[in-house]
């Protein structure tokens, strides 16, 4: 059972390795003993370059990967033993675009209402509410394939919101978008958070976004958490440890704690995971 004082997300000694080893190829430790706690109601940023282990950590929290070593809980529900309970609590926007270009915006959100088992009697209203929350009501009956990149991301946010989750997980939600579209996505996320009080866990390598929107951040590199705190707390630590940094940015903070610069080599996603979503919807009816 989840209790009011339970962390929204709790990870203890989480470890994930990929590869065979034993002469069958190298083993890569993508997540290396991560300890993490996200408080209810906050916007928590998991920051780092590609390959840092952010997406693997997110996939463990969303139960898309089985818990290998360590412990992961969402509002007190164990991700290893109560995957169904965890999934009922969260909405997830993956890094790769998952909207179906061959459906309208409304049909895409309705599809996810079925996937998340929203009661039939409530689906139409919940779909309309989710579309309104991301300012897509007027475009709801257009094909998603005609949407701009920013509109697609807002559509995916509506898909995640239709189940009224307590935890919203966003994996690189603004990757590949221009600055105006990025700002539009965050505007809707902030509005929903204010209206519902939901917890938001976001991964990003855009330090300016994290500085502006996150209550606390964890800097992740090579599978480990290198530093954790509010943006201002981390900047203050850098100033205290390196007096030459009188006005550090989060990029400077990352460089200070990881020993290297943050690279930005991410590529824009494509419409994907569509067939998987359709198969799931057909199973749940």
Automatic annotation (TrEMBL):
The record's annotation in SUPFAM superfamilies points to: P-loop containing nucleoside triphosphate hydrolases
UniProt entry tagged with the keyword Signal: no
Stored Pfam families: ABC_tran
Q: Which PROSITE patterns match?
A: ABC_TRANSPORTER_2
Q: Where is the ABC transporter domain?
A: 9-247
- Indicate how the chain sits in the lipid bilayer: Peripheral membrane protein
- Give Gene Ontology CC terms: plasma membrane
Swiss-Prot/TrEMBL GO biological process terms: response to antibiotic
Mind listing the GO molecular function terms for this protein?
ATP binding; ATP hydrolysis activity
Question: Out of the domains of life, which is the source?
Answer: Bacteria
Q: Report the SMART domains cross-referenced here.
A: AAA (SM00382)
UniProt subcellular location: Cell membrane
Q: Which InterPro entries does this chain map to?
A: AAA+_ATPase, ABC_transporter-like_ATP-bd, ABC_transporter_ATP-binding, P-loop_NTPase
Q: Which UniProt keywords apply?
A: Antibiotic resistance, ATP-binding, Nucleotide-binding, Transport
Transmembrane helix listed as a keyword: no
Give the transmembrane ranges.
none
State the similarity comment. Answer: Belongs to the ABC transporter superfamily.
Could you identify this protein by its name? Answer: ABC-2 type transport system ATP-binding protein
């Amino acid at each position: 059972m989840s209790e009011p004082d339970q962390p929204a997300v709790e990870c203890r000694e989480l470890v994930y390795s990929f590869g065979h080893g034993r002469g069958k190829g190298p083993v890569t430790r993508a997540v290396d003993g991560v300890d993490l706690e996200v408080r209810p109601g906050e916007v928590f940023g998991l920051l780092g370059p590609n390959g840092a282990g952010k997406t693997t950590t997110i996939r463990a929290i969303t139960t898309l990967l089985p818990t290998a070593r360590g412990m992961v809980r969402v509002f007190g529900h164990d991700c290893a033993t109560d995957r169904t309970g965890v999934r009922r609590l969260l909405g997830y926007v993956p890094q790769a675009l998952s909207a179906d270009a061959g459906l309208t915006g409304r049909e895409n959100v309705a599809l996810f209402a079925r996937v998340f088992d929203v009661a039939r009697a409530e689906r139409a209203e919940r779909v309309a509410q989710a579309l309104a929350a991301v300012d897509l009501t007027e475009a709801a009956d257009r094909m998603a394939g005609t949407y701009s990149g920013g509109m697609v991301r807002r559509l995916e946010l509506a898909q995640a919101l239709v189940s009224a989750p307590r935890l919203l997980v966003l994996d690189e939600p603004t990757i590949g978008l221009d600055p105006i579209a990025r700002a539009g996505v965050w505007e809707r996320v902030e509005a929903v958070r204010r209206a519902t009080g939901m917890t938001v866990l976001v991964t990003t390598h855009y330090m300016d976004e994290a500085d502006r929107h996150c209550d606390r951040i964890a800097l992740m590199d090579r599978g480990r958490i290198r530093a954790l705190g509010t943006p201002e707390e981390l900047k203050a630590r850098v100033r205290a440890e390196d007096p030459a940094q009188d006005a550090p940015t989060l990029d400077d903070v990352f460089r200070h704690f990881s020993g290297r610069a943050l690279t930005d080599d991410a590529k824009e996603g494509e419409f994907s995971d569509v067939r998987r979503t359709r198969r799931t919807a057909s199973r749940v009816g």
